[in-house]
Amino acid sequence: MNHAQMEEKIRSIIYTGIDAINEELPVSSHISKNDETVLVGSNGAIDSLHLINLLIYVDDMVAEQLNVSLSLMNELENMLVENGPLSSISQFVSYIIRLIGD
């Protein structure tokens, strides 16, 4: 799988996780699925409970679909920094690709 395919696969996994979260939220609170969506922080679209659910979902799907174990919950402290991997969906995708590459 080349880099662009990997990026698209990871983005698709994240978007599917967001779809599951959006099913629990009122329409007015739905999380937008685009690369610029801020996930956490002062303008974050996701609360802590849904963030944990998203991380677990992404972990599980990456393991299932790509046969790679990420353990994103162990990375949580590193991800919550300002302008960190959860500052946008595109940053989150890039971060996961870096973890997979390590």
Question: What do you see in this structure?
Answer:
There is one protein chain. The chain has 102 residues and is mainly α. Helix content is 57%, strand content 0%. The chain has helices at 3-24, 48-66, 76-79, 89-101. The protein starts with a helix and ends with a helix. The model has no long low-confidence stretch (mean pLDDT 92).
List keywords for this structure.
mainly alpha
Question: What percentage of the residues does DSSP assign to strands (E)?
Answer: under 5%
Oligomer: single chain
Number of helices: 4
End-to-end separation: 16 Å
Please tell me the overall pLDDT.
92
Uncertain spans, ≥5 residues at pLDDT below 50? none
Strand-pairing-aware structural class: mainly alpha
Topology diagram in text:
Blueprint: H1 3-24, H2 48-66, H3 76-79, H4 89-101
Helix pairs in contact: 1-2, 1-4
Quick synopsis:
The chain contains 4 helices and no strands. With 102 residues, the chain is mainly α. The relative contact order is 0.18.
